[in-house]
Amino acid sequence: MRKAIFPGTFDPFTLGHHSIVKRTLAFMDEVIIGIGYNDQKHCLLPIEKRLESIRKVYADEPRVKVLAYSGLTVDFAQEQGAEFMVRGIRSVKDFEYEESIADINRKLSGIETIFLFTESELSAVSSSVVRELLRYGKNVEAFLPKGMEI
User: Fold this and answer.
1) Domain that holds residue 51
2) Residue 28 lies in a domain
């Protein structure tokens, strides 16, 4: 069984992950969306809300698991038996950064990384921009996919 892990923080408005998961399922048997969290670091949404929101997106896809983890991504990937890590890329700048992380991950665990570009229409505003808008009391509903709420 070919298994890939797709790690990230996955706030609901960063829906670019949907196209990445869909394309990964074309050549993998299972995709694990690993939602990373750190109790010491502030995130826009608590881990429980992020898990619930992302699980709703994949409720009809039995080959997708949505799990939370803390610690090193490579450790989580090995615990889950993943052969590959999948990373979504929005720009060349993203790719340069992700490529350096992939080299580290390969050296630590031997797990290879697959890079896939996010479809532009699904690449929403970044979490940091939405966090800033919320801080100033702005409505961010326009950035959420249909049926999702904060």
Assistant:
1) 3-143
2) yes
